[in-house]
Design brief:
Residues 1-24 form the signal peptide. The chain has 7 helices and 14 strands. With 338 residues, the chain is of the alpha/beta class. It starts with a helix and ends in a 6-residue tail after the last helix.
Length: 338
């Protein structure tokens, strides 16, 4: 129980710092060109938030780095914390704070002075971690250069630990198997599918243009959608909890939490519609399109570790695009006029 409290408290603390740092940050998104590589080599004086397919951070980042990328490589020092939601994350220079990494593959070859929170299919630690390490991975590799000064909590399928790798603190490795209770999983999947289809039917019946409106926001402003989705997911509950204890503002807190759950619940619908329409380029009735997308997301979710990341990314897109559409609607009609 103690380690769960430590993990949750540490992650919340790190996320709060990252969320606060977005108030004053440098934003870098890919331009309209077809270039697949983004190199950050100019002077950065504050937190950097970057998005792109292949991102190389060559500049010193004095504060935090938030990366929503395909592939991230850090070639210079990060003075604060790192949040990487990337397909691959390659840490090649020191991180002065903590690192939160959600990737398919993560290679950490330079020291992290804070804690490491990592979830990836394959994780390689080839350096010193001065804080605690929390890892969920299919394959974890600790090389001869690995040295963890704090405690290590790992949930892995396979562990490749070199005899020279050092762990100074508590060593808690647990192995998981892939066997699951397929009956319960299938039942949950079917219930979830029909619940989402019912919501989609209601939206299509009363607001049929909503699907295309959110699809446009998701495809034309994909970087902003991803960022807004992440910020909404992190910051909204913090605000709601902060104002909950006060008599005057607790109804507002309840409304915020309700809207938060509602938007998150609808995000798979919009992500499925956009995915099938724009990525797979299949044209069907909107409800059939959503059904196909939801089935595909359900299948992808079954894939260990990676499936969860893909689903999380799809949810971020859906959430962010929904927030953008709602914001633009309020901005266009501030008084609720037609």
């Amino acid at each position: 129980m103690k380690k769960i409290i430590v993990l949750v408290s540490s992650v919340i603390f790190s996320v709060c710092i990252l969320a606060q740092s977005t108030q004053a940050a440098t934003f870098v998104f890919p331009g309209e060109s077809n270039q697949n590589t983004t190199t950050i080599d100019s002077e950065i004086n504050k937190t950097l938030i970057v998005s792109g397919e292949n991102v190389f951070v060559d500049s010193v980042i004095p504060k935090d780095l938030i990366a929503l990328t395909g592939n991230l490589t850090t070639n210079n020092q990060i003075g604060g914390n790192l949040l990487s939601l990337s397909k691959t994350t390659y840490i090649k220079q020191e991180i002065a704070g903590s690192a939160i990494i959600l990737s398919s593959d993560a290679i950490i070859s330079q020291p992290i002075k804070g804690n490491l929170y990592a979830g990836a299919s394959d994780i390689t630690i080839d350096t010193e971690i001065q804080g605690d390490v929390f890892v969920a991975s299919e394959n974890l590799t600790l090389t001869k250069n690995a040295h963890i000064l704090g405690d290590t909590y790992a949930r892995v399928k396979t562990l490749d630990k070199n005899d020279l790798a050092l762990i100074d603190g508590k060593n808690d490795f647990k192995y998981y198997k892939t066997e699951k209770n397929w009956t319960d999983n299938i039942a949950r999947a079917i219930i979830g599918f029909f619940t989402l289809m019912l919501l989609a039917l209601i939206i299509w019946r009363f607001k049929p243009k909503t699907f295309d409106t959110i699809q446009n926001a998701m495809t034309k402003k994909w970087g902003t959608s991803l960022l807004f989705g992440l910020i909404f997911l992190i910051v909204t509950p913090i605000i709601a909890i902060a104002i909950l204890p006060f008599i005057i503002t607790w109804p507002i807190s309840i409304l915020i939490i309700t809207a938060y759950c509602f938007i998150i619940g609808l995000s798979p619908i919009f992500a499925s519609y956009t995915w099938v329409n724009k990525i797979l380029k299949l044209k069907f009735h909107p409800l059939a399109t959503i059904a196909i997308g939801l089935i595909l997301l359900t299948i992808i979710k079954i894939i260990p570790v990676i499936g969860g990341f893909i689903l999380f990314g799809a949810l971020l897109f859906g959430i962010g695009a929904s927030v953008i559409v709602i914001y633009e609607k309020i901005k266009t009609n501030p008084k609720g006029g037609k």
